[in-house]
Specification:
Radius of gyration: 16 Å
Largest sheet: 6 strands, parallel
Oligomer: single chain
Order of helices and strands: EHEHEHHEHHEEHH
Number of strands: 6
């Protein structure tokens, strides 16, 4: 079985994330996808919403998708979340499966800064999905055979833009799964008035 790993802050998870997962599955690039919200990304500022809320929203966004599993391990682990640690654990738990790490092209340039990139590339092929306005190239010194580019997908929604709208008191309902929008309203996340 080919398993995909999609990690991230998911701050908040939005319809672009859901469309990405659906596209990877429909294209046959993975048979199953494990979605892992990070407690704290070592390369980003702290997330705006607490880990339990981001986990809950991610579970709501992917509820009912038979080939998608939301894994809570990083939100429950203290300290920063390192993809290579999670990938090692998943590989050990699912012997015989092959793994693909799913990232957006906007994250590709930062890959050399990730912890133990050579270990990560030994465990998984990197599936890079196109982002508007981002030129994606394999970082120098990395094995090009460990990368696969998906150029027939482009989703303009971003968590940064969604947070900015919410902070202005506007709920971008078209960009959010209904359960996620309801959770944000109910808990007053991102500065949006609690209802």
């Amino acid at each position: 079985m080919i398993c995909g790993l999609l990690g991230g802050s998911f701050d908040p998870v939005h319809n672009g994330h859901v469309a990405l997962v659906d596209h990877v599955l429909a294209s046959g690039l993975a048979d199953r996808i494990v979605v892992v919200p990070a407690r704290r990304s070592p390369l980003k500022e702290a997330a705006s919403a607490p880990p339990p809320d981001r986990l809950a929203m991610t579970e709501l966004a992917f509820a009912g998708r038979a080939h998608v599993v939301v894994d809570p391990r990083e939100t429950r682990r203290e300290g920063p979340s390192y993809t290579v640690d999670t990938l090692r654990a998943l590989v050990a738990e699912h012997p015989g499966d092959s793994w693909r790490l799913i990232i957006g092209a906007d994250n590709l340039a930062d890959l050399p800064r990730w912890r133990d990139v050579s270990g990560l590339l030994a465990l998984a092929e990197v599936l890079v999905l196109q982002r508007s306005g981002v030129a994606a190239g394999i970082p120098p010194g990395m094995n090009p055979n460990r990368f696969r580019f998906v150029t027939d997908f482009d989703e303009p929604v971003s968590s940064t833009a969604v947070r900015a709208m919410l902070a202005r008191g506007k709920l971008p309902a078209a960009d959010l799964p209904p359960g996620v929008a309801a959770h944000i309203r109910q808990h007053g996340l991102y500065g949006f008035p609690r209802s």
